[in-house]
Specification:
It is built from no helices and eleven strands. By secondary structure, the chain is mainly beta. The strands form two sheets. Strands 2, 4, 5, 6, 9, 10 and 11 form a seven-stranded mixed sheet that branches. A four-stranded antiparallel sheet has the order 1-3-8-7, with no helix packed on it. The radius of gyration is 13 Å and the shape is globular.
Length: 116
């Protein structure tokens, strides 16, 4: 079955950096586009970034453009999100996501807290 496991979250000061990873299993990773979402309690889950199956096409939410970079390694089935110049408003639970055969699959989520 599809498995997505996020890691790399934590507490960071404003202006700092974090790199999230998502280890994928149970499907042919290299043939699917992948996404990062985030959610703050009481708010709708927000699409942060997406990447095509080969990694050649990426897109970002306006709030993170220029600060976050999505990437992937199809040799080791891992998705990444490099987050730089972090702001308190980036505080959220971050989720790895893939859409396969009319179904959405999610990781368990990883907490990112940006605070001094």
């Amino acid at each position: 079955q599809v498995q997505l496991v996020e890691s790399g979250g934590g507490l960071v000061q404003p202006g700092g950096s974090l790199r999230l990873s998502c280890a994928a299993a149970g499907f042919t990773f290299s043939t699917y586009g992948m996404n990062w979402y985030r959610q703050v309690p009481g708010k709708v889950r927000e699409l942060v970034a997406r990447i095509s199956s080969t990694g050649g096409i990426t897109s970002y939410a306006g709030s993170v453009k220029g600060r976050f970079t999505i990437s992937r390694n199809n040799d080791n089935n891992t998705l990444y999100l490099q987050m730089n110049s972090l702001k308190p408003e980036d505080t959220a639970v971050y989720y790895c996501n893939v859409y396969i055969h009319l179904a959405n699959y999610w990781g368990q989520g990883i907490q990112v807290i940006v605070s001094s």
